[in-house]
Every structure is written in C-alpha cells, then in structure tokens.
Amino acid sequence: MASTEIQDFGAVCARTVIAGVEAVCDPLGALYLPETRLLVVSDLHLEKGAAFARRGMMLPPYDTLATLKVLEAVIRRHDPAIVISLGDNFHDRIGSAHLPEIFRAKIVELARGREWIWINGNHDPDGTVNLPGQSADELHYAGLAFRHEPSLIAPGGEIAGHLHPAATVIRREKAVRRPCFATDGRRLLMPAFGIMTGGLDLRHRAMTGLFDRPSLVAHMLGRDRIYSVRFANLRG
C-alpha cells in the first residue's frame, strides 16, 4: 500500500489506509483517524520505573512524566474526540492504582471532553483504577478492530500493539534503527509510545504471518517527520 507524505499539524506525517480507513501516522508515535477524530497510542508502559523499583532495580523515575508530556503534545496537535490506548498502558497490574496524584490529574486533564478507552494488555490485564474512561479487552469501531496483541486469525482491518515494531535502513553508509508503524493495508502495528520501551525488528520471527510482505511499509519515526520505507528496502 503506497503512502503519501503530507505537511500537516506542524510536522511531516504519513497518510495510509487500513482496510479502507484513512489514517495519519504521526512522528510522535500516535495514529490519527481524521474521519472519526480518533487518536490511537499503544504501549505507554506508564510507571515502568516504579515497577522496576518495586523489584529492587533502581531506574530514573521520570518515564511517566516524559511519556505524558509527549501524549499531551500529540493530543494538542490533533484535538481528538476519542483516544484509544492499545494495552500495556501501565507496566504492571498495580501501576494505575499506585499512580502519583500529579500524573493522575494530568490524565484527567487530557481526557476532559473526550471519550477514552483503555485496551487491556498482557502487562495490565485487569484494567485501570480511578482513571477516566473505560477498559475493554478489545474494541470494534469504524470498521476496525483495536486490540493489544495482533490476531493471526483476524480477517483484517486490525490495529494492534504489543510487538513494538522497529525497522533499520542504511543512511549515509550507517545503519539507522527506528520505531515504526508497520502496515500492509490490512493490519497496522503501532510503535510503542512509552519513552522507556524497546523495539522488535520487522524481520523477527514474532512477526511471521502477520503481513503480506510485498505490501508491507514501515513508517519510521524520525525526529520531526515520518520516513516511509517498503519492507524490501529495509536492511536484512
């Protein structure tokens, strides 16, 4: 599926189509569906530093603040009516219950006047606690299925997270690896939105069977724009 770069919202995004639904890949790592004013993010992994601290591994405790700042920026850019967060919203089952009040207030502010859906993930299967919106295992809306883990038996029209796709290209004789949106026009996998999350290469065996590779495009996140690269042109 070919994509077209567009100058939009103060940044260069990439327009694509999933099962007939137009979508805009934002370089901040969110997907926007203009027709329904729906914004999708995935794998926030909020409170990851706190989760590691509970296990005795001390990490800088700034990940939640940094991730929420990026989320605030992308919401301001698109002003969505609906926000869907595609699972692993928190890094563990108790993350939302132990969320510091300053961060809880920020999420309440971001959600004001919008519909907010938290999709349950493998890290946080029990939903959220004392946060606006509703939790669900998956959502079917506007002709698309929104779920955390991609389904090999789904007929198509799916937007999912979980695998944190990334891709590598050669630029000026150097390998450059970046998170990406990955789509073949039937399914789209979201990049991880959390600032402390890693990525899984599109050639990893976990991606097997998810895409029609001749149609697969990696919409790679650059500093201030999206770089759209066909799978055949990625580094092997």
From TrEMBL:
Its EC number is 3.1.-.-. Residues 37-127 form the Calcineurin-like phosphoesterase domain. Keywords: Endonuclease, Hydrolase, Ligase, Nuclease. Gene3D superfamilies: 3.60.21.10. Pfam families: Metallophos. The keyword Ligase applies. It is an enzyme of class 3 (hydrolase). One of its GO terms (molecular function) is hydrolase activity. PANTHER family: BLR1149 PROTEIN (PTHR39323). This is Ligase-associated DNA damage response endonuclease PdeM. The gene is pdeM.
